[in-house]
Amino acid sequence: MNFTKRQLALVFTALALCGSACSSPASRIILKKAHLTSQQIYYVPDGQFKTVSFNPPPAPESDAQREDLAVILSWQNKRTEADCAKAGETAKADYDFFWGTNSPFPEPIPGEVKDFFNRLSSDLEGAVTNMKERYQRPRPYKAYPGDAVPCIKKSWGYSYPSGHSTYSRVFADVLTDIVPERKDEFFSRADEIAQDRVIGGVHFPTDIAAGKVFGDLYHSELLKSEAYRKDIEKMKVLLVK
């Protein structure tokens, strides 16, 4: 059962990135949340991600940085119009992209489900922003203007870790907590979203790898939250019987 366009917009809109003040995909992924305040913490405080131990991106002019650029340029030389069109679509990947053709929730989607993903996205926005602010890595087309040319909409702001990679990984983890038998599907789609950011030329490969690591790290913090664990059990109750 598919969500309607209106319902999808209410669940969460897109994974497209902004930067700095909008350095996570939250401006596209977070539901309209007039009733929520950005200061409120629901599951995981974002302040810890200003200092949490995490490997930095490759140093400018390092071998690792040159390898990153080489991958970007390789894709740039071989990607097709179809590759770019797909990367543009996964850039705005919505809830339905994860669920595929069979939503596990009844339609219309329960308000409790919408509120849960609202809370999750609200917390994650701050965490991703803090991580990007720490490293302030320029995106490929800013670091190498004239050489690296994206074929999808540019995202302004910092590049490391990738917000799309982080968000898609966290949501794959979360959706697996709710519907574990669909784990392979969720992670495959999360990987697809992440890789398309490299193909489209808006992220380095190491941004993507870092987003996956950070996504799993963030999920491990979620699991420590009693409120999160209780909400996951509530989501399971709301699945289509």
Describe the overall structure.
- This protein has one domain (5-33, 63-237): Up-down Bundle (Vanadium-containing Chloroperoxidase, domain 1).
- The protein contains 11 helices and no strands.
- The protein has helices at 5-11, 26-29, 63-78, 81-90, 95-99, 111-135, 140-143, 163-178, 183-199, 205-222, 226-237.
- Helix 4 (81-90) crosses helix 9 (183-199) and helix 8 runs parallel beside helix 10.
- The longest helix has 25 residues, at 111-135.
- The protein is globular.
State the CATH topology: Vanadium-containing Chloroperoxidase, domain 1
The largest β sheet comes out as:
none
Poorly predicted regions are 1-38
Mean pLDDT: 85
State the order of secondary-structure elements, H for helix, E for strand.
HHHHHHHHHHH
Tally the structural domains. Answer: 1
Tell me the distance between the termini: 13 Å
The rounded Rg comes to 17 Å
Shape: globular
CATH superfamily: Phosphatidic acid phosphatase type 2/haloperoxidase
Number of helices: 11
